[in-house]
Design brief:
With 280 residues, this protein is mainly α. It has a single domain, classed as Up-down Bundle (Growth Hormone, Chain: A). Helix content is 63%, strand content 0%. It is built from nine helices and no strands. Helix 1 crosses helix 6, helix 1 packs antiparallel against helix 7 and helix 4 runs antiparallel to helix 5. The radius of gyration is 21 Å and the shape is globular. Pfam families: MFS_1. One of its GO terms (molecular function) is transmembrane transporter activity. Keywords: Membrane, Transmembrane, Transmembrane helix. This is Permease of the major facilitator superfamily.
Length: 280
């Protein structure tokens, strides 16, 4: 099946990060979108591997063992908690902004927040100021997580209306795979930078912040959205309606007024709470 764009809009006088500038031109293959999405999700999946930093962060002062001035695990636990809270908040409010400005600007903003959050956290470790870790990884990084999560997923679904399950699966695979890569990678970096005066966390944060910013920026630059009314060649929407899928568009402002929205939200809340509780 031909999955390239046969018809597209001509470039207009729009900014590079505008939504109009990301509309795919003729000849663009939709199979270029999954790698761009993975370039982002493999990075933000690091959040699930943050626990590898917990033990080293309790020895910033003592180096070999915790000193009286070192942070406790209870204090450090708020870093991950804040990141997850701001992931949810930013993802909730980013939907409308994403539709307005497009995925490229949203993904680049995510790259700046997530990569920048690591740099602020590195400064917090160097200065031994826990507030900077809360601000850096928790708040700024958490916003990057949320923005980086929703952008590729929504874009993939638009490119693969005939394979929605596969599209979302590829994105979630990247999010989970990011932790699988980040955990051993972070440990290896800390061991590399470890010295008699440092546990290597600050240096690792700097390296990860730069690498994640570069990878996520590449994904943002490569992402494209299909032209209006585009559909894969040879594909037609199913004639038989699925009772579980509505064909009517419900605006978010109206959805918030329905009990179904809050029931679905409650189901997701309980599901995510159980998963994050185990990870945290």
């Amino acid at each position: 099946m031909n999955s390239t764009i046969n018809q597209g809009a001509a470039p207009g006088p729009h900014g590079f990060f505008s939504k109009e500038a990301t509309i795919a031109r003729p000849g663009f293959s939709r199979w270029m979108v999954p790698p761009a999405a993975l370039a982002v999700h493999l990075c933000i999946g690091q959040a699930y591997a943050f626990s590898v930093f917990n033990a080293p962060l309790t020895k910033i002062v003592g180096i070999t063992q915790s000193a009286p001035d070192d942070w406790s695990l209870t204090t450090l636990g708020w870093i991950f908690s804040l990141a997850i809270v701001f992931l949810g908040l930013s993802a909730a409010f980013a939907g409308k902004w994403l539709e307005k400005v497009g995925p490229r600007r949203t993904m680049f903003t995510a790259a700046c927040c997530f990569g920048g959050g690591f740099l602020v956290s590195a400064l917090g470790v160097y200065l031994h100021q826990i507030v900077l870790l809360y601000l850096g990884y928790g708040v700024i990084g958490g916003i990057g997580l949320g923005l980086g999560y929703v952008s590729p997923v929504s874009t993939l679904i638009r490119w693969f209306p005939d394979r929605r399950g596969m599209a979302t699966g590829m994105a979630i695979m990247g999010f989970g795979g990011g932790a699988m890569i980040a955990a051993p990678g972070s440990v290896a970096l800390m061991n590399h930078f470890k010295s008699a005066t440092s546990v290597g966390v600050a240096e690792t944060f700097v390296v990860l912040g730069v690498l994640y910013f570069i990878s996520m920026t590449i994904g943002a630059l490569a992402i494209r959205i299909p032209p209006a009314d585009w559909k894969p060649a040879g594909w037609t929407p199913p004639a038989t309606a699925n009772k579980m899928i509505t064909k009517n568009h419900v605006h978010i402002d109206q959805a918030l007024k329905t009990p179904q929205f809050y029931l679905l939200w409650l189901v997701l809340f309980l599901n995510v709470t159980a998963g994050i509780g185990v990870l945290g």
